[in-house]
């Protein structure tokens, strides 16, 4: 009996820890409609700053004061990030905001490493919760007392939040803005100040959440990504923007996990996502969420229809392809492998662009299909002794099948909700691969997946990749110009009108999602035969972000965007890694600058120059 | 008091308002008339800043308002009551009023909860109810009351009688006349003359985003030709 009670209390304690962090995320989203991916970084900073403060304090008062101060400090950092990075892009499409917050993640990661070092830090135990007071006997089972303290802290925070939201003007404005922020501004409320206030409060909650973890798990550089999927899952289950929803969802997920671990110790991560899937089947907008009709283009306003490629552009492409064909003559080894990497990423980015730019659906979990294809090929080779040619042939179909399942859940939603759901499902796949080590070898990855006939690094291998990658990209391009592609674009530009003329928009989006997934799977299978191995890393959020960055860098507007973006990203990445240990931070700063200064990506540079040197249509009209 | 000069507003690429100009003098009630889709709501939104006109001038008490954010325009004394009411559904009546509350302004009537509950007695009985629990008429009253909490000297009322039962429409007309008596200047939009002639002094008629007519209500009532051309459905 005592055992189950302790299990329940442990679940509740985890729920409370999760709630502290996730409440800040949902609060920020509710008011600003920004999906703040750097929320996990604020959580990590909370733990690190608390570490430094605790080391310099003494006594119980100093200890608890340090945790609170750490929260406030993180709140201020969040505020600074909001003022510098997010304020200029509140009106930008979601993709830009995502990319910007991803830049913040990279910068904070390197800053933390620079200040506190790469080693994990272990915090002091809380005074009064160590030694013989560290555990308490509950009906025969020992329970860590600090876990009970976390419950008390979270409940106090919940109480304070309740007071703020129901009894203060600021709280009432926040609730009103969550419902209709435009109306709030028409009633005389300075939105800008309100947003900053909310960002401070939300980041502070993340900071406190991280600080509270310090005596339990210490501080490490992995904390930011580790917390991301649990907090996004509970925010999605609870209904984005609902504090109460996130509280209920945290308890639901954590308690189920606490008991689930008794029965399925291998599938704790998957369990969390299963709960989410079940909830979303019945309530696509989460437990307490409301349907949101989004007419804005998540990927940015499409200014004009796709243009036919001019003869000059055709020449450029043919020249590039010709150069690629002859390059093995004067390049070899390392350089040739770099080109292979670029080609694979070009196909990966182009497949994401198909669903994101052409389809208007911002998928945050595209790595699921890339990694899915890679694992499909690797598993076929490892367990079925399939030859490479066949594995490459099958991989896109298997990735497409995965996309079919994920797509069935996701295409019912639009905008941010679609993005969050694709991200969460990509995490499901990642956790399966990560935890099902009997088959996937977990973190050790599948190695020795070398092609049988053609050895990696050979010129023949190069040509196989070249033909398949370029072929895949041309196929993606051709699809955008078929009637099927037209209807996809029609659904993107106006789903209502498209449905009114008899198109099944959801079915078209669904099949496009599958097609894009299959192409990503092809890229993944090419990747695995180039490297000879595959690790769960290929399915992480970070990999999905890489693809989004490539598409963003190249600009969403054109079909050539993802190709130039992938090339630029890969080469930039290679170059930064060579020159500095802190390449992540440099990349992050670069990304943030691009988002703020060049809202159309690298393709925007050309436009910028054109605007400087030629007259805009408006000026001509004025004449 | 309010001078709108040749504003042009767009939704994306669609040109909605074409050189719309109109004036409202202190203490007046002006009705903006026109059929569905004539540009009435867009005119209202262009004045209160929710839509930014691409060209033209919106002058309020001698100050340029075009290009200013909505909260700035609200604080200058222009209150906006949207057509869809846009009551905060999960907030109580009292909380809805709190959102609209602004500090006192000189030379204009000051409003408090109690004063507004006198104007709209229906709301007084339900002050702890959520916005979503109110009837259409009550939501309209709450929307007006919420805007009045900002102590505006001028209010934009977008189709205040739309979709309301005749009894409630009458109450609404009485409330608007009361507001006028208190010294609030009003620009209201309507699809038909019936409600407008109860409360308005002057009328401006919009059609397809162009101003087609301006005159007193009495003149308009006498002008059968104009009414058939722009108002009859």
Description:
- The complex is a heterodimer of chains A (623) and B (233).
- Chain A is mostly helical.
- Chain A is built from 25 helices and two strands.
- Among the domains of chain A are: 222 residues, no CATH class; 190 residues, no CATH class.
- Chain A has a two-stranded antiparallel ribbon with strand order 1-2.
- Chain A is globular.
- The C terminus of chain A is likely disordered.
- Chain B is of the alpha/beta class and 233 residues long.
- Chain B has one domain: Rossmann fold.
- Chain B contains ten helices and ten strands.
- In chain B, helix 3 packs parallel to helix 6.
- The longest helix of chain B has 17 residues.
- Chain B is globular and about 45 Å long.
- Chains A and B meet through helix 6 of A and helix 2 and helix 3 of B.
Instruction: Name the CATH architecture of chain B.
Output: 3-Layer(aba) Sandwich
Strand proportion of chain A, as a percent range, falls in under 5%
CATH topology of chain B: Rossmann fold
Distance between the termini of chain B: 33 Å
Radius of gyration of chain B, rounded? 17 Å
| Global structural class of chain B | alpha/beta
The count of helical stretches of chain B stands at 10
Number of helices of chain A: 25
* Major sheet: arrangement of strands of chain A: 1-2
Q: CATH-wise, what's the superfamily of chain B? A: P-loop containing nucleotide triphosphate hydrolases
| Uncertain runs of chain A | 615-623
What can be said about the biggest beta sheet of chain B? Answer: 6 strands, mixed
Set out the fold topology.
The complex is a heterodimer of chains A (623) and B (233).
Chain A: H1 2-32, H2 39-55, H3 59-86, H4 94-116, E1 135-138, E2 141-144, H5 145-167, H6 169-186, H7 191-217, H8 223-238, H9 243-263, H10 268-282, H11 311-330, H12 333-358, H13 367-384, H14 388-410, H15 415-435, H16 437-440, H17 459-480, H18 483-493, H19 495-500, H20 505-531, H21 541-554, H22 561-579, H23 583-597, H24 603-613, H25 617-622
Chain B: E1 2-11, E2 14-24, E3 29-33, H1 40-48, E4 55-60, E5 63-64, H2 70-75, E6 78-81, H3 93-100, H4 113-119, H5 121-125, H6 136-148, E7 154-158, H7 166-182, E8 185-190, H8 193-199, E9 202-207, E10 210-216, H9 217-222, H10 224-230
Parallel strand pairs in B: 3-8, 3-9, 6-7, 7-8
Antiparallel strand pairs in B: 1-2, 1-4, 4-5, 9-10
């Amino acid at each position: 009996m005592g055992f189950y009670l302790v299990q329940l209390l442990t679940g509740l304690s985890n729920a409370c820890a999760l709630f502290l962090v996730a409440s800040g995320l949902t609060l920020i989203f509710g008011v600003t409609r920004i999906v703040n991916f750097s929320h996990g970084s604020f959580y990590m900073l909370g733990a690190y700053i608390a570490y430094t403060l605790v080391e310099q304090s003494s006594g119980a008062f100093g200890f608890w004061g340090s945790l609170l101060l750490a929260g406030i400090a993180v709140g201020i950092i969040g505020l600074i990030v909001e003022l510098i990075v997010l304020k200029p892009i509140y009106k930008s499409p979601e993709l830009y905001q995502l990319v910007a917050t991803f830049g913040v993640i990279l910068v904070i990661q390197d800053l933390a490493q620079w200040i506190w070092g790469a080693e994990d830090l272990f915090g002091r135990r809380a005074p009064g919760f160590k030694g013989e007071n560290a555990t308490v006997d509950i009906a025969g089972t020992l329970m860590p007392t600090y876990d009970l303290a976390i419950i008390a802290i979270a409940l106090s925070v919940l109480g304070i939040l309740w007071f703020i939201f129901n009894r203060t003007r600021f709280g009432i404005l926040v609730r009103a803005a969550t419902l209709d922020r435009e109306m709030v501004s028409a009633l005389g409320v300075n939105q800008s100040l309100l947003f900053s206030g909310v960002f401070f409060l939300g980041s502070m909650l993340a900071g406190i959440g991280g600080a509270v973890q310090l005596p339990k798990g210490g501080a490490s550089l992995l904390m930011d990504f580790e917390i991301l999927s649990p907090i996004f899952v509970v925010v999605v289950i609870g209904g984005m923007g609902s504090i109460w929803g996130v509280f209920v969802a945290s308890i639901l997920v954590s308690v189920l996990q606490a008991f689930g671990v008794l029965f399925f110790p291998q599938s704790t991560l998957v369990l969390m996502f299963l709960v989410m899937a079940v909830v979303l089947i019945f309530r696509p907008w989460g437990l307490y969420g409301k349907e949101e009709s989004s007419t804005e283009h998540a990927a940015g306003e499409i200014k004009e229809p796709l243009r036919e490629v001019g003869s000059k552009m055709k020449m450029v492409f043919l020249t590039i392809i010709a150069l690629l064909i002859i390059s093995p003559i004067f390049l070899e080894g390392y350089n040739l492998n770099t080109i292979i990497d670029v080609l694979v990423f070009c196909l990966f980015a182009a497949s994401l662009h198909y669903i994101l730019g052409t389809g208007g659906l911002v998928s945050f979990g595209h790595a699921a299909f890339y990694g899915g294809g890679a694992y499909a090929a690797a598993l076929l080779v490892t367990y079925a002794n399939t030859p490479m040619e066949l594995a490459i042939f099958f991989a896109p179909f298997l990735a497409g099948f995965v996309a079919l399942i994920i797509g069935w859940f996701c295409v019912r939603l639009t905008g941010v909700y679609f993005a969050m759901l694709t991200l969460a499902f990509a995490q499901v796949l990642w956790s399966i691969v990560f935890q099902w080590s009997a088959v996937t070898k977990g973190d050790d990855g599948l190695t020795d997946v070398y092609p049988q006939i053609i050895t990696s690094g050979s010129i023949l291998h190069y040509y196989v990749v070249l033909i398949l990658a370029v072929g895949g990209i041309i196929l993606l391009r051709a699809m955008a110009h078929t009637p099927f592609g037209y209807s996809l674009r029609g659904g993107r530009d106006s789903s209502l009108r498209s449905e009114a003329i008899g198109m099944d928009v959801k079915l078209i989006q669904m099949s496009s999602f599958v097609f894009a997934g299959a192409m990503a799977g092809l890229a993944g299978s090419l990747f695995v035969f180039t490297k000879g191995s595959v690790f769960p890393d290929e399915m992480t959020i970070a990999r999905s972000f890489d693809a989004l960055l490539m598409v963003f860098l190249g600009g969403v507007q054109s079909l050539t965007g993802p190709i130039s973006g992938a090339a630029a990203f890969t080469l930039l990445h290679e170059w930064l890694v060579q020159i500095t240990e802190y390449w992540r931070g440099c990349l992050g700063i670069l990304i943030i600058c691009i988002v703020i200064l060049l809202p159309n990506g690298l393709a925007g540079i050309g436009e910028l120059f054109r605007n400087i040197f030629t007259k805009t249509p408006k000026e001509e009209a004025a004449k | 008091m309010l001078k709108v000069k040749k504003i042009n507003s767009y939704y994306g690429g669609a040109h909605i308002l074409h050189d719309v100009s109109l004036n409202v003098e202190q203490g007046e009630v002006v009705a903006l008339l026109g059929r569905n889709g004539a540009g009435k709501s867009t005119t209202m939104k262009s004045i209160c800043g929710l839509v930014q006109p691409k060209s033209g001038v919106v002058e309020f008490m001698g100050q340029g308002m075009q290009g200013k954010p909505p909260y700035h325009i609200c604080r200058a004394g222009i209150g906006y009551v949207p057509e869809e009411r846009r009551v905060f559904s999960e907030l109580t009546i009292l909380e809805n009023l709190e959102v609209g509350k602004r500090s006192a302004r000189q030379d204009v009537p000051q409003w408090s909860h109690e004063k507004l509950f006198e104007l709209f007695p229906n709301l007084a009985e339900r002050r702890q109810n959520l916005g979503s629990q109110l009837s259409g008429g009550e939501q309209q009253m709450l929307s007006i009351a919420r805007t009045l909490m900002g102590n505006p000297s001028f209010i934009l009322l977008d189709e205040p009688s739309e979709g309301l039962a005749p009894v409630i429409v009458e109450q609404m007309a009485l409330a608007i006349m009361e507001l006028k008596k208190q010294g609030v200047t009003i620009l209201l939009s309507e699809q038909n003359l019936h409600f407008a002639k109860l409360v308005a002094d002057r009328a401006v008629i919009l059609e397809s985003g162009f101003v087609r007519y301006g005159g007193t209500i009495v003149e308009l009532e006498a002008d059968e030709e104009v009414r058939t051309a722009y108002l009859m459905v």
